[in-house]
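User: What would this chain look like folded?
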Amino acid sequence: MSPVETFASQGAALAPRVRRLDDALVDQIAAGEVVERPASVVKELLENAIDAGARQIDITVEAGGVGLIEVADDGHGIAHDDLAAALSRHCTSKLTCAADLSAIGTLGFRGEALPSIGAVAELTLTSRVRGSGDGFAQTLHSGRLAPPVPAARGEGTTVSVRDLFAAVPARLKFLKTERTEAGAITDTVRRLALAAPQVAITLDLDGKVTRYAAASAFERMRDVMGAAFADEALPLDEQREDVRLTGWLGLPTAGRSNALAQYVTVNGRTVRDRMIGQALRAGYMDVMARDRHPVAVIDIEINPAAVDVNVHPQKADVRFADASAVRGFIVSALRRRLAEAPPRTAGAIASAALAALRPAETAGFAEQQSGFDTPHRARPAATAAIRPISPPQSRPQPSAPPARFAGLAPGARTAGARVAPPAETGELDLHPLGAAVAQIHSSYILAQTADGMILVDQHAAHERIVYEGLKAAAAIKRPLSQGLLIPEIVELPADAIAGLLEAAPLLSSLGLEIDAFGPGAVAVRAVPASLGQCDVAALVRDLADGVDELAGASALEAKLNYAAATMACHNSVRAGRAMRIDEMNALLRQIEETPAASQCNHGRPTFIRLSLTDIEKLFERR
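Assistant: Here's the prediction, encoded as structure tokens.
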């Protein structure tokens, strides 16, 4: 008989009496909500220290937090006759009336942290109030409160937690290894350090000390995130009515395989809110691969009355009064900032490229030092050599490129071959992506810049350019269509036709006109003019394969972007297509002028930048 059946049979014979749980058991149950792991203890104690007005906080951790967690601060302290109350449930100095609950301005407010910790560990609270000559200590061990005793201490408070979960051994079984728990503590401290840059924090983790000096928000971000992120990140400062969004955005090509590198605070409170996470993904949706996650440090400042922080036991989630407005603001602010950024790819990509050029024994060094996982693997080398380029009779100046590179037929090929003459320094200073020098394997453009070189993926770059052009035409509802003299009939399965016809208005906004044609086909009557001569049937089949997966009215924009991206891919200059020098320079200029042109529609980088210093290091000149 199973335990459930046994319990049911006993209950049928004799109904159990309803009784009040004893206080110790109640405290242990409550502790299960607040104290999930050692990092939860560090978070609660660190937030209390920040609320106390501390300017210096020292954290000591041993054995992954199970042996010892000690947090000492120089805050305002706790009065002698308030120590017992501070260790009792639902006692706090941060709320005075019910009205305060609707506009919470402190990190803690429930009065549950210390008693919950003391219910599952031995907690000693030592404090001395500013201006007072005496300090006192009081211990709470497994729910039992000892009387206060005098203790020597400077102004401020120290909370020592020993033998965590000793009172509930079953909880110990669910903890990870010491290394994993220590990593969670480090992440917790890092997040709170970003949220409170004005506070100096020291973390001693089994003898390994990390210090965060009091600094500006940017300096603290640089200390926590590293110089590589700080040097590349895009500053963010947007405001709409009573909501302000500040922080730094990582480049799209520096995306991670998970969302752990997203640091979000709301009114200084570190949170891991699902809605905000979804808004971050949506903000990067058009410039990052679907399986990648952005790196970001952002703070949302909002009227405390417009956000409820009392919706999660660990205060990790928040609830906005107008969540859709906040989400829309975040998405639009991120998209606008990313679109305004000049063409630039993450340094980790250049590091990976340099590592590939180094001898085998040192090839992995740069990637390890970069701090980011490499976004994409390098493509296998092709078998052809560098294709030389024949210069035109009068080489055009970079300041006057051909007006419409996008009009070139994707399948066209050019004969003739010589390397372009070197550009003068003055020309290189005019443009961030420099001047074209050669084409490699009929797929990649090599350009010289004032301080190095650029390697461009011609197909990926042109794909982004065409994509942005299609979106711009759809936005102003002026798509340029080219009617087909004879409609193209494309046979498709019935379910694919239904999804395609549902998206027909969106496709029409891009210049693609599709109608039903019998039970098993559609008729294409017009295509976007920018597509030129393309395989219409292949384009429609690709659209049908993906647009039906983006169901629902909320996915209209996603459908539009997917359709535009599919059309752009079909119309872009293909890898393997030889190009003239003026065509390549035109492409470089269009990359510089196109929003989000540092990556293609699929999130892959469109170019790699190598500085002259990096190149000289490869040849041991530095």
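The chain has four domains: 23-212, 218-340, 345-378, 388-622. If you want, I can go into more detail on any region.
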